[in-house]
Amino acid sequence: MDIISNLNKRLTMVEGGIWHGGEDKIKKVLSESPVKLPNDYIEFLKLISGKEKSLGISFLVDDKGHEIFIWSAEMALNKRNLDFNFPFYKDFTDCTWMLGDDLGDLIYFYGEGNEGFGIYRSEAGGLDIGDSDKIADSLTDFLVNGVGIDIAITL
Predict the structure, then answer these.
(1) For 41-87, what is each residue's pLDDT tens digit?
(2) CATH number (domain holding residue 71)
(3) What is the DSSP letter of 104?
(4) CA–CA dist 128, 109 (Å, integer)
(5) DSSP state string for 20-70
(6) Nearest to 149 by CA among 83, 86, 60
(7) Is there a domain that residue 53 lies in?
(8) Could you tell me the pTM of the whole model?
(9) CA-to-CA distance for 155 and 4, rounded, in angstroms?
(10) Which of 79, 103, 133, 146 could bond 8 through an S-S bridge, CB–CB 3.0 to 4.6 Å?
């Protein structure tokens, strides 16, 4: 299922775009991720990672001004290897794959949290999988079925 074509009615794509490709970067994501990444996420990356220096895709939530930003493969790699490559994040980055943010203080990631494997959110300044809130089981549940949208945009 193409997530973009079946986007939840609460979400509107506002930045970024569809740039098919980026297979080399996606292979690197798959080799660097400490968790097995779901197929729907990998297929989504293939839709948004083809343009050089692509950051990802941003969705406006309703008319509240909140945004959900899902990073391209290149952006996810940069975040992992540059922005969060510090010793105090090591325990977190060793067991999660960060996939986006709310353009503010919240980071979205795949990991095995208190409610099983899925997409969780945590505050960027205190990344702790044990203290994170589950958003949804899958990217499809999140962006198509709307599961966890309110969790994703609020503390």
Answers:
(1) 999 999 999 877 788 999 999 777 899 999 999 999 988 887 777 87
(2) 3.40.1580.10
(3) S
(4) 11
(5) ---HHHHHHHHHH-SSPPPHHHHHHHHHH--STT--EEEEEETTTTEEEEE
(6) 60
(7) yes
(8) 0.93
(9) 26
(10) 146
Burial bucket for residue 92 (CB in 10 Å: 0-12, 13-18, 19+): buried
- Chain centroid to CA 69: 7
Grouping H, G, I as helix, E, B as strand and the rest as coil, residue 9 is coil
Q: Look at the chain and report how many structural domains it folds into.
A: 1
The residue count of the chain comes to: 155
Q: Angle of helix 23-32 relative to helix 39-48, nearest 10 degrees?
A: 140
- 133-146 pLDDT per residue, tens: 999 999 999 999 99
H/E run at residue 111? strand 106-113
Residues 55/16, Cβ–Cβ less than 8 Å? yes
Residue 137 lies in a domain: yes
Residue 3 within any structural domain of the chain: no
Residue matched to tokens 């297979």: 23
Q: ∠ CA(57), CA(4), CA(48), 5° rounding?
A: 40
Terminal C-alpha separation, the chain: 30
Which range of residues forms the domain containing residue 25? 9-153
Residue linked to tokens 């990344």: 127
Distance between CA 78 and CA 32 in Å, rounded? Answer: 12
